[in-house]
Amino acid sequence: MIIHALKANRTFTIDYDNDMFRMDGKPFRYISGSIHYSRIPSYYWKDRLQKMKAAGLNAVQVYVPWNFHEMEENELNFEGDKDLVGFIKQAQEVDLFVVLRAGPYICGEWDFGGFPPYILAKNPNTIFRTMDSTYIKYVDKWLDVLYPMLKPLLYINGGPVLMVQIENEYGSYFACDYDYLRYLREKALAYLGQEVILITTDGSGDGYLKCGNLEGVYATVDFGVTMDPKKAFQPQRDWEPKGPLVNSEFYTGWLDHWGFKHSTTGLDIVAKSLDVLLAYGANINMYMFEGGTNFGYWNGANYPAFLPVPTSYDYDGPLTEAGDVTDKYLALRQVISKYVKTPPMPIPANTPKMAYGKIEMKFAGTVQDLLDKLRKPNQKPVTATYPVYMQAFGQYQGYALYRHIFKQDYPTAQNLSVVGIRDRGYVMIDQVPVGLVIRERIHNLSLSITAKKGQTLDILVENQGHINFGSGINNNTKGIIQNVTIGTTILTDWEMYPVSPELFEPSTDTFKSTGTPYYSKDGRFMSPSIYVGQMPTLTDPQDTYLDPTTWSKGQTIIRSNMAYNIGRYWPIAGPQIRLFVPKPYLAPNTVNNVIMFELEMAPCKTQAGCTVEFKDKPLINATAHGPYHKYMSQEIGYKYNWHSFH
Fold it and tell me: CA-to-CA distance for 628 and 165, rounded, in angstroms?
């Protein structure tokens, strides 16, 4: 037996001879679930943790997304919904241990796999997850902040953290840079102490463990439902002949992509497989136990086909996106009760949900009308001869407007080519929409246009989420990343404006607007525009769901005393229709403004008639228009069989 810790009478060790963990010398097995504090308002952390404890779990597994705490260089935030230490302490209060996945890479269908995009502003050619000098410089600074915060929280120091994972599924990455893994190991040990147990997690296959495994770090695996635990764990045994069996990601469900059917995994097969694995003596973490929500712009995107993840990260988990108990939860709780001696605590009640009905939405202005209100005060546009990628001018998420003034007439139709679009570009001439250019859709990277000298070409670009998986995390710039041409002419002299709808603050003048958007000749598109409505005054707000069924695509913000970016809506694509609006995002006894940044087409063409409705039930398994896959087969131009790790 190798002793990893002997401090203050608290020890957590690996007993290799007996294939188990030991806590304070006694045999220990953890049954845990994944939730992500970054996807759940801090107001609800205790509720979710209590429901995990009530299911019979004794641990929670959690990622630390670097960019959630440091989106801007040197601007660190560990407060409120970002209070990592507070979350860990709440887990301890509920009597749950913690398995911490510290990164710096997490994947998790999270924007950029947790990396801050400012690194791309420093060097767009950075090779992430290697000893690349730019990358390591910023990883080093980040871990110098993170690890000192974590050390007092280790179990051996009186906290709940049992183990710390370095990197994540590194064996699935092309680089196979052992020097990088050794650097992460030594960095962790230097700050956390030689006694800490470090782990890795990789897919259950020799090919994954070959590059993900590292001496001095305990290798664990991940896999979904199985009836053959010996076969499933064999790759771990090949690399760790002795020690506890650990499945760090036992999949209770699966992720979604816009335009594809909602993923589900039957409760019977999940419960039966969990029973088999627990009977086999394994340590299990259920991924996910509650998925939560990709609020704002935090969703990632898959690769090699660019497939962004929806706002909902429900994952068909035992707890819903809103933290409600499901039949799957009850089935897994019953299985766990066979292996846990102490009876679980009573299950906390589900949180109330309210249907607040329809509210009228009023046109406030086009993106061009409101450009000054959609960026920070005194934030001037960036000017350059050629288009500049978004990260280079500090727009790390969301939207940007690229503007060019035509220097000559184009009286006959010419191809306007935007081959470097990342990810979705709304093209307008003097605010009138002329079409849409889309990443991954090769036959829709150019538009036939005519134009006159002095007219304004605007391209509003949506960053739909940075790629979070595979080699696609490199070259992960956004905006317009190559020259724009008309015919054979390269268009030069551009202005670039950050566009952040969450900065828009309605005023009394907002509701006096008498304007309307501009519409394309074919009637398919309108100029991207802001619409604003007001919820009825709420004395005791509750969770609710915003239903944008009649809208097309865009972003929703709830603003009262502060702005809450609820996330992206895209009902024409699905599978998610309704957006979860949690109670703490609604202010009592004051005005809650609802802001819709509609990119394609609002449900009304006049000042009257646009509404949005708040309902009391989710809808994440449908499309507003037409069958599954039809939209994406038209949108992308092909069907793609995807697979992703976490």
Answer: 38
pLDDT of 441 over the 80 cut:
no
What is the rounded distance in angstroms from the CA atom of residue 35 to the CA atom of residue 44?
12
Look up 79 and say whether it is catalytic. no
**Residues 205-239: pLDDT tens digits?**
999 999 999 999 999 999 999 999 999 999 999 99
Residues 6+ apart with CB under 8 A from 74: none
d(CA 443, CA 66): 37
The enclosing H or E element of 92 equals helix 84-93
CB 595 within 8 A of CB 559: yes
Separation of alpha carbons 100 and 115, rounded Å: 17
Question: Is pLDDT of 602 > 90?
Answer: yes
| Domains of the chain, each with CATH number or no CATH | 25-337 (3.20.20.80), 357-361+506-518+528-616 (2.60.120.260), 376-499 (2.60.120.260)
Q: Which of 70, 109, 240, 249 is catalytic?
A: 249
Beta bridge partners of 154: 161
Burial class of residue 512 in the structure, from the number of CB atoms within 10 Å of its CB (0-12 exposed, 13-18 middle, 19+ buried): exposed
Catalytic residue among 70, 109, 167, 169: 169
Burial 231-260 (b: 16+ CB within 10 A, else e): ebbebbeebbeebbbbbbbbbbbebbbbbb
Sequence-ordered strand ranges (E) for 75-128? 97-101
**CA 378 to chain CA centroid, nearest Å:** 30
Instruction: Specify whether the CB–CB gap between 293 and 313 falls below 8 A.
Output: yes
Look over the chain and give the mean of its residue pLDDT values, rounded to a whole number: 95
169 catalytic residue (yes or no): yes
In angstroms, rounded to a whole number, what is the distance separating the alpha carbons of residues 143 and 506? Answer: 40
pTM over 0.90: yes
241 Cβ contact list (under 8 Å, min separation 6): none
Closest C-alpha among 394, 378, 404 to residue 495 = 404
Q: How many CB atoms lie within 10 A of CB 370?
A: 20
What whole-number distance in Å separates Cα of residue 48 and Cα of residue 71? 26
